[in-house]
Write a structure and sequence with these properties.
This protein is an alpha+beta fold. The protein is built from 8 helices and 19 strands. Strands 5-6-11-9-10 form a 5-stranded antiparallel beta sheet, with no helix packed on it. Strand 16 and strand 17 (275-277) form a beta hairpin. Helix 4 (182-189) packs across helix 5. It is globular, with a radius of gyration of 20 Å.
């Protein structure tokens, strides 16, 4: 089921951003900045301006014998950036291969996968401020990064547009293969070495085996965040659920695998009419054809209530609901 926007604008330069900002402020219109649109669920028409960021470009800003600083425009496809860096031998982003979306959205969400988060390699970003119509630079310490969160989802939400993002990547990177099933996938591939190209290949294979292609089957990727609980709650759940999948955190808390919880309590593969839960990955809610955004949202509510009733844990949606 389709939804409509009242206005739609593509911007690829500061001049175009300035013009659309002036129009929005003058007419007091709500607006939404859209990257690849991969992490949004529309439940109704949007009464305002959808802004699609289209600037492109990747360049090196600094380099030493140990690292490079790579800057990418917000409109670049995220996985194209990862592929570019891996091919050049710059390590750090390979575990984030095949995450859908564009570069500009990556720091907003502090994207992460397989033991790596964007903040681990983030240097700074440029941000077009709608009120002042100027570019402001935000460094890592300014961004309030946390698990799938940042200042751009909170204090700066709806205040402007990310235009460029800069990363520091290693020429002799530390390979991270202990999280999830990367090591098992490398073994199945018969790979005895694990350079960044091989790690990227393994991550792509894993993601393609578990996650549906949104072009073929409508979905917004992982729908829920992995909930974090304190040690007492973890111990309580572990007694009740001995096979519970969880990961210890530096502060003593535990991050629970939301997908495991959803699967354990019977939702994996669930289908009702034209929507349901993917058969290979319980974190992914799918639209088989003509379901509405409201259908998907209501299903997510049912799952949340189910997990809360069984465990006392409240799942939080990762997808933005509009």
């Amino acid at each position: 089921m389709n939804v409509d926007a009242e206005y739609f604008a593509e911007v690829a330069s500061i001049q175009e951003m300035t013009r659309i900002a002036e129009y929005i402020l003058e007419n007091r219109l709500p607006y939404l900045v859209l990257g690849g649109g991969s992490n949004i669920l529309f439940t109704k028409d949007f009464k305002g301006v959808i802004i699609k960021v289209c600037n492109k470009g990747i360049e090196i800003h600094a380099e030493t014998k140990d690292y490079v600083e790579v800057q990418a425009d917000a409109g670049e496809n995220w996985d194209d950036l990862v592929a570019h860096c891996v091919e050049a031998g710059y390590g750090g982003l390979e575990n984030l291969s095949l995450i859908p979306g564009n570069v500009g959205a990556s720091p907003v969400q502090n994207i992460g996968a397989y033991g790596v988060e964007l903040k681990d390699h983030f240097v700074s970003l440029d941000f077009f401020d709608f009120d002042t119509k100027t570019i402001k630079t935000y460094f890592s310490k300014d961004c309030n990064f946390s698990y799938r969160n940042s200042i751009f989802k909170n204090e700066l939400k709806g205040k402007g547009i990310v235009t460029k993002v800069k990363f520091r990547l290693a020429k002799n990177p530390e390979i991270k293969i202990s999280y999830g099933s990367i090591k098992d996938e490398l073994d199945s591939m018969g790979k005895k070495t694990s350079g960044i190209k091989v790690v990227r290949e393994a991550v792509i294979r894993i993601r393609r085996s578990k996650l549906p292609d949104p072009v073929e089957l409508g979905n917004a990727g992982s729908f829920f965040k992995n909930p974090v609980v304190d040690k007492n709650k973890y111990n309580e759940l572990k007694r009740k659920l001995p096979e519970l999948v969880a990961y210890p955190q530096e502060d003593g808390s535990w991050k629970l695998a939301a997908g495991w919880l959803i699967e354990h309590f019977g939702w994996k593969g669930y289908r009702h009419k034209n929507f349901g839960v993917h058969k290979n990955q319980a974190l992914v809610l799918v639209n088989y054809g003509k379901a509405s955004g409201r259908d998907i949202f209501n299903l997510s509510e049912e799952i949340k209530k189910s997990i809360q009733a069984e465990t006392g844990v409240e799942l939080e949606r990762e997808v933005n609901i509009l």
